[in-house]
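[recover] target loaded
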């Protein structure tokens, strides 16, 4: 027979809720590990008193009773597993696995039996239902009646909150059956009553979740948080884990208490109680117990009089009362020397602590993730900047946590930590490339050779040479056509201080001298082509031949898909760096092959460029002829306008001053601006119609003829 039995997807009934987990039976005892919280229940083989096999809603169940009165229920077994379990109990635990079926008659009259921490309502020899007394939050009595109230189960949609029992009176003198029933319940119930004095009190402690300042009163069985608005009573049995975490500033400490079930404030559930302490704050503590009681109860872990840092005293007292070890950060050390990493989770910034068996994030909202529930982790590129990255964790239940805005300098330490813990990294190939880039960044050396950077510089020189060789006025745009130095010079010339001074002085002189506008028009005429010069560079002829690629770029285009297949998930920048390394390591013979291809492409480009230049020159000649023809037509139109202006000036003898001021235009001004000539033409035509006399009857008659 096997020494161990293991069962997956077994459900443990705890306070009315069914917790999924794994059950293992061995010679030493029974171990159940909760998949949700990671809590482990260990029942020693010597403590087992009884085992019961019965049919339940989830198939078949196993109920174990211990010698100290505790009851453990596990459901989810198959009927065929009974023989295997029965033989195992006989061989290793010397117990007979009894079969007991529940009574389903539907009667509501029976007997109540108290066995350990269990209330069983029986009809005959068969139980109808059982109530764990640890679920009872309150017990009240009335005339021949006892009422039990239960803790609310947050995991269940519908919870049983109250049960009433009718207890008939008896003829025995001096014994009240109702009070006896209530005392049996209260002796085992989870009813928190702040009776007696607290062991010690910590006043005005800063609490981050729930937020506020609270007085913490330490009682033998529970913790009492007393604030201005809310009060919380936390049984020590609900404390799952304790954490003591140093802040990144090395001046503060976090003390985190993990709770299951959580404390409630309205509809909000707090699974973690987080206290913030200053390292400089000290306290002298005296326990409200005599030295003998302290020694007997805590066995040297606490003394009656203690002094030291406040966070040390709180953590020491909690460790002794809860009887759980305090988890502290392990050997992880970040880039800045701290034992945590600054990051953001959801909308808030906080600190992520890599622990020996998990990760914990504080503080809003607090998150604790164990290594055994992690499916894989992922290092992702930051969405807003390349100076940071995201750390993603996905659990086996499908829940994903994303810690963003982590400084890139922290990558190497975090990757080494995850790798050492043997966690599954989703994109390991990509991240090894990132690790290499991080090392290069951390150990940056100006003399270190970068193949990719050198290749980019070489291609930039080739572009400049090709641009200088092919600049023949055809309007072709190359990658090097944008020259910041030249553009700055244009701007400096156009808005030069001398030019602005001359233009402003011209404005001032125009008020005093009528001859100055001609000089001002000359300035506009010289500046106008300079404004149009950058605009001519914007248009790129789509028919122009494309610039040839270098040998490296030809090889990269041919090898890009192969590099992607060899490194799945690789990013664009990492692909370029990898390509630079491969090109640098390539033999001289292979490089010469790509150099020949690049030379052939350059010859083809030069040949196509010559043909394109001839065609573009012919097009430019045709364009110049059409421009000359258009200018000639404009001059003819202007000449007609001048003749009409002279006619209107002679005919407007009634108002000579007005005619002089409106129709006179400088010849230079008119020839320098096309728009002004059109406006003058329009004004002259309007003046002609307004100043000419009305036609006589003879003229109209001759016109009609």
């Amino acid at each position: 027979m096997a020494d161990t039995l293991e069962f997956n997807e077994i459900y443990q009934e705890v306070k009315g809720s069914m917790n999924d987990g794994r059950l293992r039976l061995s010679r030493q005892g029974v171990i159940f590990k909760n998949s949700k919280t990671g809590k482990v229940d260990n029942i020693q083989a010597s403590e087992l008193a009884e085992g019961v096999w019965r049919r339940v809603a989830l198939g078949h169940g196993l109920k174990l009773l211990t010698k100290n009165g505790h009851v453990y229920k596990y459901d989810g077994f198959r009927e065929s597993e009974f023989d295997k379990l029965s033989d195992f109990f006989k061989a290793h635990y010397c117990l007979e696995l009894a079969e007991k079926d529940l009574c389903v008659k539907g009667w509501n009259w029976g007997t109540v039996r108290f066995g350990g921490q269990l209330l069983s309502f029986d009809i005959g020899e068969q139980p109808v239902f059982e109530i764990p007394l640890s679920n009872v939050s309150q017990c009240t009595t009335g005339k021949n009646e006892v009422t039990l109230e239960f803790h609310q189960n947050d995991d269940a949609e519908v919870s049983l909150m109250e049960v009433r029992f009718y207890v008939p009176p008896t003829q025995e003198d001096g014994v009240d059956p109702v009070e006896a029933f209530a005392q049996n319940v209260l002796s085992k119930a989870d009813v928190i009553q702040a009776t007696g004095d607290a062991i010690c009190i910590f006043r005005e402690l800063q609490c981050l979740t729930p937020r506020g300042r609270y007085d913490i009163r330490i009682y033998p069985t529970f913790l009492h948080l007393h604030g201005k608005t809310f009060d919380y009573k936390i049984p020590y049995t609900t404390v799952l884990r304790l954490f003591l975490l140093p802040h990144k500033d090395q001046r503060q400490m976090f003390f985190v208490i993990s709770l299951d079930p959580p404390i409630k404030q309205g509809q909000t559930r707090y699974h973690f109680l987080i206290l913030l302490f200053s390292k400089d704050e000290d306290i002298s503590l005296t326990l409200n117990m005599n030295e003998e009681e302290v020694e007997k109860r805590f066995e040297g872990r606490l003394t009656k009089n203690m002094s030291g840092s406040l966070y040390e005293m709180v953590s020491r007292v909690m460790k002794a009362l809860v009887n759980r070890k305090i988890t502290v950060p392990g050997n992880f050390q970040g880039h800045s020397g701290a034992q945590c990493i600054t990051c953001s989770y959801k909308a808030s910034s906080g600190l992520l602590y890599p622990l020996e068996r998990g990760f914990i994030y504080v503080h809003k909202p607090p998150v604790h993730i164990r290594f055994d529930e992690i499916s894989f982790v992922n290092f992702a590129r930051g969405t807003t900047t390349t100076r940071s990255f995201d750390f993603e964790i996905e659990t086996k239940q499908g829940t994903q946590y994303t810690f963003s805005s982590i400084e890139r300098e922290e990558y190497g330490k975090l990757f080494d930590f995850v790798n050492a813990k043997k966690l599954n990294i989703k994109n390991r190939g990509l991240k090894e490339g990132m690790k290499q880039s991080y090392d290069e960044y951390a150990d940056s050396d100006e003399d270190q050779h970068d193949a990719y950077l050198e290749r980019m510089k070489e291609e930039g020189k080739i572009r400049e040479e090709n641009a200088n060789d092919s600049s023949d006025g055809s309007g072709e745009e190359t990658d090097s056509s944008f020259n910041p130095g030249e553009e700055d010079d244009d701007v400096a010339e156009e808005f030069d201080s001398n030019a602005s001074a001359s233009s402003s002085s011209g404005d001032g002189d125009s008020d005093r001298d009528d001859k100055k506008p001609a000089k001002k028009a000359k300035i506009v005429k010289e500046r106008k082509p300079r404004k149009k010069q950058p605009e001519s560079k914007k248009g790129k002829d789509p028919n122009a031949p494309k610039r040839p690629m270098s040998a490296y770029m030809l090889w990269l285009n041919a090898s890009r898909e192969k590099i992607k297949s060899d490194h799945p998930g690789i990013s664009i920048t990492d692909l370029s760096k990898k390509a630079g390394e491969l090109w640098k390591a390539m033999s001289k013979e292979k490089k010469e092959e790509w150099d020949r291809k690049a030379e052939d492409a350059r010859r083809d480009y030069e040949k196509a460029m010559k043909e394109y230049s001839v065609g573009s020159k012919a097009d430019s000649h045709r364009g110049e002829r059409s421009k000359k023809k258009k200018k000639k037509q404009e001059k003819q139109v202007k000449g007609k306008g001048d003749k009409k202006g002279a006619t209107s000036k002679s005919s407007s003898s009634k108002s000579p001053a007005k005619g002089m001021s409106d129709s006179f235009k400088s010849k230079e001004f008119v020839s320098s601006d096309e728009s002004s000539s059109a406006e003058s033409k329009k004004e002259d035509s309007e003046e002609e119609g307004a100043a000419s006399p009305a036609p006589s009857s003879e003229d109209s008659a001759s016109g009609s003829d």
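[recover] notes: The chain is about 40% helix and 30% strand.
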